[in-house]
Amino acid sequence: MGEFVVDLVIPAYNEAANVGALFDALEDIVGEERAVRRVILVDNRSTDGTGELAAARGATVVREERAGYGAACLAGIAAAVSGEVGPPMAIAFLDADLSDDPAELPRLIEPVLAGEADLALGQRGRLAERGALEPHQRFGNALACFLMWAATGRRYRDLGPMRVVTVAALERLEMADMTWGWTVEMQHKAATRGLMVVEIDVPYRNRHAGESKISGSVVGSYRAGVKIISTIGRLWWGERGDRRGALRASG
Length: 251
Fold this sequence. Notes:
Strand order of the largest sheet: 3-2-1-4-6-5-7
Shape: globular
Number of helices: 8
Oligomer: single chain
Strand content: 5-15%
Distance between the termini: 49 Å
């Protein structure tokens, strides 16, 4: 990949059962002259040794004591851009459960590397294996994407966790959400702030081991869905207020 450096951020909470298989799957794409320079695993208060296992496999491990998916992603970004090895040009995000195939990351990196996208999103719906996306997950994704289309005019097909975004775009996005509104905040702001976005169909599998902390139950999915929908409403209302303020200032 030449001078275009990509770091991979993996938020993780009690994923010890998946760490070995995850890093086995990453071996072919991480390292000098490969798609990804290094792996930054953010240990989000794990109690099962997730961080220690990842460090033993060569990952840069960051401990984040604030609970929340967004908090872990923000900690990973901070570690990527402030490290002694120098900041990357782009950051990839991947969950630790192996539902997304790490081998697909170079396909998302390619349009960003070529300057064709500021943000590349892995779209799961078309290639998901049976049971990987439950009906309530598909409904929640569809509803959130519809609401974002209504609020921003941009149509998305998914809110999948696997994505690649340039550091310059992250500076424009000013990400702030600490919980499960993270993905929708990124996509909503990408639409309203003029980022070039591509969605790429990727396989999606049942998680390698253990149960999802969110989609593993209807209650967890409901809570995440409420957070996502409220995030869309908050962003829409805030930007509406910003536009009104700008009109008053210009008038």
